[in-house]
Amino acid sequence: MIEKNTAKEKLYVQDRSIVVPGELLAEGMGFIPSKGIYRDGELIRAERLGMISVDKNVIKLIPLSGRYIPKVNDRVIGKVIDVLLSGWKLDINSAYNAVLTLKDASSEFIAKGENLTKYYDLEDFVVTKITKVTSQKLVDITMIGPGLMTLRGGRIITVNPFKVPRIIGKEGSMVTLIKQKTGCNIVVGQNGWVWINGEPECEVKAVQAIRMVEKQAHLQGLTEIIKVFLEAK
Amino acid sequence: MVYKKRFDNRDWEELRPMEAKVGVVPRADGSALFKIGKTVAIAAVYGPRDLHPKFLQNPSSGILRCDYNMLPFSGHGERVRPGGSRRSKEISMVMENSLLPVLDLKDYPNTVIDVFVDLPQTDAGTRCAAITAASMALADAGLHMKDLVSAVAVGKVGDKIVADLTYDEESYEEGCTDIPVAILPNSGQITLLQMDGEVSPEDLNNALQLAKKVCKQIYELQKKALKEQYKQ
Questions:
Q1: How is the beta sheet containing B160-163 ordered, strand by strand?
Q2: Residue A43 has what pLDDT?
Q3: Taking CA atoms, what residue in B is nearest to A39?
Q4: Which CATH superfamily is domain B18-227 in?
Q5: What is the predicted ipTM?
Q6: How many CB pairs under 8 A join A and B?
């Protein structure tokens, strides 16, 4: 008969506390470590800088910093950096470049030998979706789908990719709020690139709001703070 | 061969006043400043990013590239020639070796993590300060790490085992042994151990015990600095 030894199980951190790599989080086999946390015998330790969230016996770590790592189905903003023989190479603010093939570029027929810069030229920014990431991080993207388009006008800002969920908010609440209050058109890429288009003063205001969210992403009740900020002046 | 009192009036096991700060280089992916006495190290981490030349790429893991650099005006009046030297090349290598055991770069094939450490002001213990700052900067860059790395120089000056030697102590005329040590504070494992001078096995043991003890103080400071930037 297996006896459960609960006396040895102990949690050393609180919910929403910041931890550093190697920090002791809990002791005992009853806890389940998730991504970014590792087991060292009976001990459970953090593997990267982040914020802890404890859900019963599952310990989760929400990363707070780092570069963007491509993931399938992410909607990202890319910049065309090269035109290939049969496609385009895009910078997606990551260590790895993405390749857009002719098949995925347009629903139109693109004839052989056609001038590809007619569709996407160098330095163009596009909203795109990642369709495939291999083990060696070769990234395929597509332009066919709702909301995927070339970006014209406006400005691009870079934010910490791990703060993107906060900028978008629960069911898009935060970004919708900023859009409504400033009247700007905003696209937030999962890779940390944000496109803002509108009247110049409104764009500046939107950038300030996004920077505020990025800076205070670990705080609670942020939507209210941003609302007050946007309604002032 | 009696060393009666330390030149700066510290206790034998006392470290110089320390200061640590994270996020000092806004454009870098991670950065940190570590100051111990008059030695100042600034570390900046860039990456994971594309690695060129391509033949250096490793398809099964990312690689770590360290660059240790003492600024020309950093030393004791003697001007350090700018750029790389035999010494800086060696220290860059030992830094890589002391930081790699904690890093997990399997998720970033074919890429590089660049760590640049510059020392605007030095008074011995530079490689240890560089490693301590670099480990904070790597954590700040959000990389997967088993533990932080804390480093300190211990040694024997005259007949005394001391922690955190200054330049004056390193050049003590009646003999000095300098032992830079890098330690993983949670497991107590050693990732850097060098020695300049002579020491008996017992003294080496005592020195290492002392290093383990004082590294805890450095570790606490590193932890505090990393958490401070997210203070509510």
A1: B160-163, B150-157, B176-183, B190-193
A2: 94
A3: B146
A4: GHMP Kinase, N-terminal domain (3.30.230.70)
A5: 0.91
A6: 86
